[in-house]
Write a structure and sequence with these properties.
The complex is a heterodimer. By secondary structure, chain A is mostly helical. Chain A has four helices and no strands. Chain A has helices spanning 2-14, 19-23, 25-66, 71-99. In chain A, helix 3 (25-66) packs antiparallel against helix 4 (71-99). The longest helix of chain A has 42 residues, at 25-66. The radius of gyration of chain A is 21 Å and the shape is flat. The termini of chain A are far apart. In chain B, 71% of the residues lie in helices and 0% in strands. Chain B is globular and about 60 Å long. By secondary structure, chain B is mostly helical. Chain B folds into two domains: 1-21 and 29-37, no CATH class; 43-239, no CATH class. The chains are: A mainly alpha, B mainly alpha.
Chain lengths: 101, 243
């Protein structure tokens, strides 16, 4: 019960920021939403990219521990996989730079 | 007048007139007619001239009995690229190693020159990685045609003929997307590195940005390696032979 109440207390802090949208009211409500969406999108992309890379690195470390003689092949697959996963998060960053003024 | 690096200023001072008239004759209108050469183009040109000078130096000092330091470095780099082609493409791979090494060295020096004050990395502007990606794409398509003739087009229909109607649009889009992914990967890594360094520089001007410059070195090498490796993989897909 105290865990739920602490989570709800943390979530309620986010609502304190809502009045900031009311200040730049005339033209900025659309602009504020674009910025908020951009931040949320980048956060989700980076978080999921982190999860994916963690799985890749964990599998590579485990495979290396089981079979140290296969290091070149495992290292190759690890570096290639990490760079490809990273590039997915970077696509989000590029869209943000293209769309957010 | 835009913000110019010192080399861009020198080049624009001497060549702005002829370059602007050349662009106008091609129908292109530069934003600043008195400074048509951009920073990225000026540094790229410098890197190209630097690489040509280094290659000439290596070429002129090659020797079998007493190899010098430069020869060792380039033999090591060439051996690395050739080893990659053997692993990925198979036994016919050495003929693509010179192109991959030239592409790799160009991208690497372009990335690293951003560290020196007074220069900015050309790969941090979106057109330079696009150029490298288009060159790599045209090269591997051309090698596919050279290797298999017109039968290279059968690659786009997939492994079995009765799925060809489905595979053709998928393969076309995936081939075109390779250009986009190569470009965006290199551009975003370099540009984001610059952005992050600037952000931390505005927060803590002393000491902390050095960490990001070191990160930039690591990311430069890694991204160059990934670009060359992916081009090798695309080449392997284009010139592969089913046994």
């Amino acid at each position: 019960m105290s865990k739920i109440s602490s989570i709800l207390m943390m979530a309620s802090v986010f609502f304190f920021a809502l009045p900031a949208f009311a200040q730049g009211g005339e033209a900025a409500s659309g602009g504020g939403l674009v910025v908020a969406a951009a931040c949320l999108a980048m956060a989700i992309a980076s978080g999921l990219c982190g999860l994916g890379q963690a799985r890749a690195t964990g599998s590579a470390a485990e495979a290396l521990a089981r079979n140290p003689a296969a290091r070149p092949g495992i290292q190759f697959a690890l570096i290639l996989g990490l760079a490809l996963i990273e590039s997915l998060a970077l696509y989000t960053l590029v869209i943000i730079f293209a769309k957010v003024k | 007048m835009p913000e110019q690096l010192w080399i861009t200023e020198i080049l624009n001072h001497w060549f702005a007139g002829p370059v602007t008239s050349l662009l106008y004759s091609l129908g292109i209108h530069p934003t600043y007619p008195q400074a048509p050469i951009t920073n990225a183009f000026a540094v790229e040109l410098l890197v190209f001239l630097l690489l040509v000078v280094v290659f000439l130096l290596v070429r002129s000092s090659l020797s079998v009995d007493k190899p010098g330091a430069l020869q060792h470095i380039f033999e090591g780099a060439h051996g690395f690229v050739e080893h990659q082609t053997h692993e990925v493409i198979g036994h016919g791979g050495e003929r693509y190693a010179p192109f991959l090494m030239a592409l790799g060295l160009f991208i690497l020096v372009n990335n690293l020159i951003g560290l020196i004050p007074g220069f900015e990395a050309p790969t941090a502007s979106p057109v330079v990685p696009l150029g490298c990606a288009v060159v790599a794409w045209v090269y591997y398509q051309a090698q596919g045609f050279r290797h298999a003739g017109p039968k290279y087009l059968l690659h786009f229909f997939g492994p079995v003929w009765w799925l060809g109607w489905l595979m053709l649009p998928i393969e076309l889009i995936s081939h075109l997307a390779r250009m986009m992914s190569l470009t965006i990967r290199l551009y975003a890594n370099m540009f984001a590195g610059d952005m992050v360094t600037l952000v931390f520089f505005s927060l803590v001007p002393v000491g902390v940005p050095i960490l990001f410059l070191v990160l930039h070195i690591g990311v430069s090498f890694l991204q160059t390696y990934i670009f060359v490796l992916l081009t090798t993989v695309y080449l392997a897909g284009a010139v592969a032979e089913e046994h």
